[in-house]
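Methods: example folding runs. The two proteins below were folded one after another, and each record is reproduced exactly as written to the output file, sequence line first and structure-token line second.
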Amino acid sequence: MKRTLYVSSAAAAAALLVVGPVAAATAASTTEAATGGVSAPLRAAVDAEGAAAAALKSHPGVIESLDKDGSVWHVNVIGKDGGNTELLVTAATGSVAVENSDENDDDGDEDAALVAAKVTAQQAMKAAVAAHPGPVWSVQWDDDDDSNKTYWDVEVKSGGSTTNVHVDPTSGKATVSHSDNDNDENDNG
């Protein structure tokens, strides 16, 4: 028995929309395999956590500060030898380059407190985002001479504003400090 299948033009268009990209991707990978070419997988921009991981993989130590400037993350790492290295992590690729390296860091007392802190920069970022959701724009070890307090200062961006969250380096407790409207700032991120 012969069956005839009728497909409406709307169903055919829907099938092409679904199958079209898959077929195009399959054709591209088949062409690539045939030519021996290699393509990089599409990846999202590197966030603060990714920049921290890339920097520490390149230069093991403890992160002192991390901030985004346009399409580059600036990451300062106190190395195991006590030297301070400023690294540039490209937000698009995660590639790391050394911007500046100072083997004779004059901030020995402050660095000792940072290295001994129970809460790392990465943990401070997670605590800040738990207290105030949004992407982290910067994290900095802050030794406030006026109040004799030390804390992580984390900037979280959300809804057109920047919120500073202070994270205790011993307990990990996050406290929202203040928010600023970003409409006048020109951050390319």
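Second run, written to the same file directly after the first:
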Amino acid sequence: MHSDIPHGQQPRTRVGALLLLTDPEDHLVLIQPRYKEGLFLVGGARHEDESPREAARRESREEIGVEVVPGRKLLDYYSPPNPRSGAEASMNFVYDGGQLTEDQLDSITLAVDEVLAWDRIDESQLDHFTTEPHAVIIRAALEARQLNRHFDLEFARTTRGGLTLLRQADGHDDIPGLRGKRLAKGFA
């Protein structure tokens, strides 16, 4: 407990756990959640007594009916609270979920109360099927996987309610595969 924060007034931060999944041809395996715009990674919020890795494993079972054991952590990212939607601040962990087999892909069963659809797409299609911040997150996770690195991103809320990538918080100036690409509104 920190003495500068009054008891009972600690900030609330949601913890999210996500999986970077690909198919045998290295296409991204993404879902269309009911509560978010565009395709995104499989995963969601951690329940009270579980670790982020346990949450990622549970979310894969719940959302696509396939149990995925999270591999190496690729990416952490912080998203600030959103007063417009009421969303709390969140700290999110993206794990390497590996490559799903054709049998696993054929057995995908969606949690209809949470997920509208799933698809396999090439990285070059991200800008057409997801939001700018989600494209940044997915590209950074792919880059971390390829380079065997870990990235730590921090987003800020814009005045219009969107997200802007502020910086990498791990001391690196950029993510090599994202050089010169438009990352998110207000960031180049």
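Comment on the second run: The beta strands are 13-22, 28-33, 42-45, 73-79, 89-99, 115-121, 151-157, 163-168.
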